Amino acid sequence: MSIDAVTATRAYGLAVHAGAGSLDRTLLTARVESNIRTALEAAREAGFRLLERGASSIDAVEAAITVLEDCELFNAGVGSVYTATGGHELEAALMSGRHLAAGGAVRISTVKNPIRLARRIMERGHEVLLVGDAAEAVAREFDLEEVANSYFDTPGRLAEHQGALGAAAIDREWEGNSLLPMTEYGTVGAVAADQQGDVCAGTSTGGLVNKTDGRIGDSAVLGAGTYADNNGCGISATGQGEIILRLSLAKGINDRVIMRGSSLSLAVHEAVHNELSRYGGSGGVIAITSNSEVVCEFNTKAMFRACRTSRGEVGVAIFGAGFKDGDP
Amino acid sequence: MSIDAVTATRAYGLAVHAGAGSLDRTLLTARVESNIRTALEAAREAGFRLLERGASSIDAVEAAITVLEDCELFNAGVGSVYTATGGHELEAALMSGRHLAAGGAVRISTVKNPIRLARRIMERGHEVLLVGDAAEAVAREFDLEEVANSYFDTPGRLAEHQGALGAAAIDREWEGNSLLPMTEYGTVGAVAADQQGDVCAGTSTGGLVNKTDGRIGDSAVLGAGTYADNNGCGISATGQGEIILRLSLAKGINDRVIMRGSSLSLAVHEAVHNELSRYGGSGGVIAITSNSEVVCEFNTKAMFRACRTSRGEVGVAIFGAGFKDGDP
What string of DSSP letters covers B205-245? Predict the structure, then answer.
């Protein structure tokens, strides 16, 4: 087999997630469940189609996360939660495993797709992590779509915001409609490996419901919610941000693979079920190696996720384990 | 030997640093050199005296870093560099290795001692990482000393700011006085292990000279510039923030110790001389284990550092290796 043939048959693929939490199966209407699966599949396919055509894992991750950001169901982009003062502060990061290039943005209030901004910050190659106005200046530099902060106002999130503020019981009407009876850790993310074997990871979130304005979570912090290293893996995590930050959860998974030679599945299993759980944290992780082994683990009741690889693996799941729903 | 005796004889100690860079020995006047050594020793002794009396490593790190923040020589606290727009934005983090508790603050403009603020954010136990006004609200909650942003204005840093802006050549007059002919990576930090074997690490900085307002460096990012884990080590790094962020340098050192069983010195050596150098980064690291093994490595010409342990190790150095100056 020639080197070209080896290159051409290199496996590629991706996984996406849209958060993990204590979703109550009995509250999940058939319509909402169908909407979730459709959105996860749409994100996955947007990324996979690019990988098929030979595009980079960076393109695939950006495309997949953009679909999830543009879906009101999830706590990222348009579906972002409210902060304590009733605004929206988004954060996102994207990292390439090829040269450990990375970009992150926090406290974003006027950029429609924070993952696109994270990518531009990475490609620009100056700062890696930018706050608010500094990040938004880069968005203007690259002509990214800007929106008023009120673009992120949605009725379901508003009800949740008011409920969490104790102002009134949440109007559960919205649950059966387009929005979702689970918002705990509604972060979205994607990990991909392309035909060149380059890994990429990205994460985007509206953060914690009613968070203090100015709180930074794990999503945009490299090594915490997002990390990518061709020699190890690409990781996107979701869950209790403060614990994931303290654990540097994503970097720990990468280091298990690189330093200890763990399989990806053991590395992710340990990080989620031993480490995260030991510190009282809930959440979940998707991860991928440069030859497109994909893994998903979570210690919550549910995690929204999907995957597809050139080897023919394909899945979309809410409950169960791995990328399969299994028994409730 | 009783358990009490073992406990009582448990080694304790700390190391401090005040940045690493390409300091030209010929530019270092005797007076400046003496000022630097005096400041490093004062910081070290402030921490060590507390450890001797049985205080926590958290107390020791806070005390040592406060001394360095209050010294105009170093790029942290009062000696912080200017941002691109002529203000000051400080950042700091503190982490305890006992329960991986941590606090970090970025974009601080009115808190005299950001390391104190980082500690309060940690002890408060809500958010881990806070930006600007959110962090400064915590400072007010704890009655920390507030200052006008102009408190951080110093003539030497102003000359440097203007020089880097190309407005004029730096007036080198200041170099022989209280300020310093090295500002590249003037971050300060401390790592300590106390009589209970608890490790703590802290880092504080004014960031990059003429940085974009809103740029976040590595210092306050857990796993990058600061990390502490009793089972591994406490680490404070200084250097090119963007590269340290991308490498999650501190967490990588901790993982080498925990996951691969590396000695502290090998773990730090690899991180600085292989990893950081491979990515074109310069900088340095101090680290400590729970039984007070202290290590310092840097790939720059100089690093300001000092250490003292209950085993009798004591040092203060600018050039050389470890905690000794050696030959130029």
Answer: E--STTBPTTEE-STTSBTTTEEE-TTS-EEEEEE-HHHHH
